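Work Package 3 committed the consortium to producing structural models of liganded targets before the mid-term review. Because experimental data for this complex are still outstanding, the team generated a predictive model from sequence and the ligand definition alone, so that downstream docking and mutagenesis planning could proceed in parallel. The input record is reproduced below exactly as it was submitted to the modelling pipeline, together with the SMILES string for flavin-adenine dinucleotide.
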Amino acid sequence: MSRTPSRRTVLQGVALAGATVTGFDPATRSWAAASPETASPGNGAPPAGPARIPRLDGTLVTDASSLTAAADDFGHIVHHRPSAVLRPGSVRDVVAMIRFCNDHRLPVAPRGQGHAAFGQAQTRGGLIIETATLAEIGDLDSGSTTVTVGAGARWSAVARATLAHGLTPPVFTDYLELSVGGTLSVGGLGGQAHRHGAQVDNVTQLRVVTGTGELVRCSPSRRPDLFHAVLAGLGQCAVIVEATVRLVPAPGTVRHYLLTYDDLDTFLEDQRLLVREARFDYVEGQVSADAGGAFRVHVLEAVAYGPPVGPEPDDTVLLRGLRHDPATVTRTDRTYYDFLDRIAPFVAELKEAGLWAYAHPWLDLMFPGRSAADLAAPLLDALTPATLGPGGVVLFYPLLRERFRTPLLRTPDDDVFHLFDILRTVPPDDSAAVDRALAANRAAYDTVLAAGGTRYPVGGMRLTRDDWRTHFGAAWPALERAKHTYDPNGILTPGQGVF
Ligand SMILES: Cc1cc2nc3c(=O)[nH]c(=O)nc-3n(C[C@H](O)[C@H](O)[C@H](O)COP(=O)(O)OP(=O)(O)OC[C@H]3O[C@@H](n4cnc5c(N)ncnc54)[C@H](O)[C@@H]3O)c2cc1C
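The resulting structure, written out as tokens with the ligand in place, is given here.
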């Protein structure tokens, strides 16, 4: 019996359906699969030639459909095909495979729910670690102040588990079907963030696997350099396998207001007033097109929590002094979970209409409060319903800088700043329109950067390493040091293009 794989069983980035990957041949940079020829020689000795894959609790696959799926994301713009996908059965698997990849200088990218817009969770020819199998939610009771969750858990599952005990993480993204590891690697923003900071500001401890395969527990007081390099660290220094997240009491119901403004300045001034006063528990906003296609319908979305967290919402108190159009106020009382999951029906419609499969060259920027109107006006003037695309959305909402304490989540230098997102859709085969959108994104970023703004690093934009250095600014040296310490061979998360 041959002890080395035949040419047929060595995978040159080629799929092998149904086979178990057992080895990696460093000479050919290819994976080898089990077959009668490559199976153990019978005396317990590993086959010579390819390096043997560590024993795994989960599975390592190289079949075509897994590789193709891992070479796509919500953006549908970038397609880098990995050579294998790990579905870990345990944290031990993540450790073992990162050590293995580090030894063989193979790139590795963790992938949560794959909702990145520009290949951030992809790698050409390396290993994708799909974290969805690491989704355990730790024990809880009504007195818990934190919950420990697997990095692959979705925020919807975390919300349901904690609400069963009357508790909630303080901040959610608008869409709940994102993974904990995915949003903690970028920041995690939502309408509650003006009160509590981003999701990364509400993490008390992490368990991570570094680029050398070391499993480490870190927190603000234990290996703080690593903790601060991982939160909003774009997967550059370690893979998050578990996060401990702060909990607060949850409201039973909330009152949800939609207030319309026809004037951009007034809309933004009222946003800033509301977050400085912390009058509401949640504040967001959107800009949409009027009947003539001009983007000047400004809708402020504000939510007040009811008992047991807040008093019964009082419209007179909550809306006092605001300068919206009083004729168009919409007010809805709903359960807290319905509110958190409010965009689920919209997402279902987008999927039904095939728009989820459209390209998403999203633009995500942060404006200093003082220049928000000046920066937004030309971008909104240039926007048309056609360039936004069907199902596209413009988000525009305020955040309070003092609540943001995570060094790698870069925020503009102003006490109030605004998140501004143009969430475009483009027909997937219209590459010229995608290129135009990416060029427009880049031009907008350059203008905003010059005015003291930043970008929220989730959208579609072509960036150089120098751009990243500029983006991280004063936080760059610590990130660079951590990269050299924790991922010295630079194998982690190349799709971000940071190093
Ligand atoms: C419909 C939609 C709505 C959104 N709404 C919001 C919102 O309201 N607020 C907001 O802040 N963002 C929002 N986002 C952006 C979203 O938070 C990011 O794109 C996030 O990274 C996606 O999570 P994911 O699990 O899909 O991550 P993936 O796309 O799988 O990964 C994103 C990045 O994180 C890295 N990563 C993933 N898991 C880990 C891990 N365990 N350890 C280390 N790095 C990891 C990946 O390698 C990659 O670089 C939205 C995106 C979409 C598509």
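Reviewers should note the following from the model. The pocket of flavin-adenine dinucleotide is lined by residues 73-74, 109-116, 120-121, 131, 151, 173-175, 178-179, 181-183, 185-190, 234-235, 239-240, 458, 493, 495-496 (CB under 6 Å). These observations will guide the Year 2 experiments.
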